[in-house]
Every structure is written in structure tokens, then in C-alpha cells.
Amino acid sequence: MLLIVSVFAIQIVARANLTVADGVILVALYVLYARRVQGTPEEEPAVVGVPAGLLSLPPHRRRPAIAALIVAAAAVVIMIANPFADALLATGTSFGLDPYFLIQSVVPLATETPEFVIVAVLVANRRPAQGLALFLASSVSQWTLGMGVLPIAYLAGGGGTSMPLESREQVEIALTIALTFFAVAALAALKPERVDAAIVVGVMALQFLYPTTFVRVAAGIVLLVFAIDLLFDRRRAVRPLYRAVVGRGGAG
Fold first, then answer.
1. Exposure on the CB side of residue 192, measured as CA atoms within 13 A
2. CB 3.0-4.6 Å disulfide test: which of 96, 102, 179, 213 passes with 92?
């Protein structure tokens, strides 16, 4: 799914706008993804904590409980989104920081910290595969559902059916596309290598330390070159990925 959405996003960067039609397609891809990750009848769900508690409920109480959690989470986000953004920008301005840098770096760090904590707990308990699966699920959700609702929200807020992208936003999305291609290539054979992780960490750390357009473009090119090389080397693993999405032949 990451490979599909990253290929789809290329035309978004080329057009320099994100349309409502793009949003509908991305949300539809998320729905397809959600249906495909439900597992197989032979697969035992591995859940602990709150999910295990929800599964222990009778079916007629389980869905209302999940719906209530979703509504409560949405209410919290609606209540704190604007105050958080305003306070962050005001704090950054008082320290002379670029507002774009705050939104592009600090906000994701703050919102994704719980995810990193959960993954760290899973890895500490010798469940690294589940931690990696959580990261992958988060990436798919951000690429599909998260990006898909942006033009819809833009339209609902009084904008048009096409949300324009500035040049640095195009660069950021292009860099994310290259990073996604590399991640797919590195994981295509389901055997992550430490050298792949080292490349990602090194390239991303460099562009974070030197956040210029030139460095980001160079980082994207480096990741894309490595991704093409890895995909060619592991090309036999791409077809099973395709079958896993469309549901042909069963997923491994």
C-alpha cells in the first residue's frame, strides 16, 4: 500500500496541488487497506492491554465501546488543536524560530511521541515485528487517511476543490516519497537489514541538521537511488506485495 500511494503522490507533487479527487482516492485506499489487514481466519489476534479488554466484551457492547472511544478522541483533538497550534507558534516566535520549522518538525514529534513509546515497549519485550508493524500502519494511515482529508478540510474551511502547494511543500512531499520508496525496498523481502536503517538515519539526520532545499533534494535523490537499487535486487518480492493488496493468492 505504501508503494501504491507513493507512486500516486508523484502526480500531486508534479501538479503542485492536492485536489478533493485525490483526497477521495486516498481515503478509498485507506478503506481498502483496513479491509486487507483484518487478518485471515487461521491467524490468532495478538492483542494486549486495552485492545484485549475490548475483545473480551460481548459483540453487542464491543462496537459501541470502540465508537465511544473514537468520539472521545475526536472531541479532545477538536478542543486542543487550535490552542496547541497558537501556543506553539507564539512560543516559537518569542524564540525567533521559523513557524514552518515548528509545524514541520516539532508538531510531528509531539504528536508521534506516544507511538514511539509503544514501539519502544514492544521492542523491549522482544516483539520487534509488532513494533515495525505499528510504524508501517501509522505510515499508511498518514499517507492515505491523513493526507486524504486535507483537501476535504480545505474545502470545508472555505477553500476551493484544489489545495495549492508551495515549493517547499512540494520538496517535503517529494522527500517523503523517496523515503517511502526506500522503506518499501528495504522491507520488500521481509528481512530488514541494519545497513538500510543506517542509511535512513544518516540521510534524515543530515537533512535535519542542514534544513535547506538543496540538502533535502539531495537527500531525496540519494534515497531514491538506493531504493531503485534495492527494488531491482529484490524484484521477486514485489509481486507478492501486489497480491497482498489485491487479495490474489493469499498474503505471506
1. 13
2. 102
